[in-house]
Automatic annotation (TrEMBL):
SUPFAM superfamilies for this protein: Thioredoxin-like (SSF52833)
PANTHER family: GLUTAREDOXIN, GLUTAREDOXIN-LIKE PROTEIN NRDH
Membrane-traversing stretches: 29-50
Signal peptide positions (record): 1-19
Keyword Transmembrane: yes
Glutaredoxin domain: residues covered: 70-127
Organism: Streptomyces cellostaticus
Protein name (database record): Glutaredoxin domain-containing protein
One term of GO molecular function: electron transfer activity
Biological process (GO), any one: cell redox homeostasis
Record keywords: Membrane, Signal, Transmembrane, Transmembrane helix
Amino acid sequence: MTRAWILPMLLVLCGSALAAGLIVSGTPGAAAALLLVFVLLAGVNSPLIFPRSIGALEAQRRSAVDGRPVVFWRPGCPYCMRLRIRLGRSARRMHWVDIWRDPAGAAAVRAANDGNETVPTVIVAGRPHTNPDPAWVRKQLSRSA
């Protein structure tokens, strides 16, 4: 749990330190703008932008029932962020597994990627797809609906 928040916390702390330096040097407007940028970066890199994660076993069980894809991801991954943002609202219909929170999810990703924890790994109909094109994932999601 804590591991997922390290990067966002570091971004906020660094932004705060830089903003404090700018305030001391007499440019509070630039400090506010810089702090806003760092807070936005922290938000984008936090687990908050992603749908609520569930365990790998629960995700696979649900996927077997409803046919929806399972997405294995981790906070701070730019490719995961790209997939999540490009899927838009339809991302909420998928089953998301944070591999930093779920050891079984990390093991499933390593099994699918020759021992590497490469994310996003999307499981569609039992077959893993590493870093797939978001348009392709959207098509798979519409097929399962």
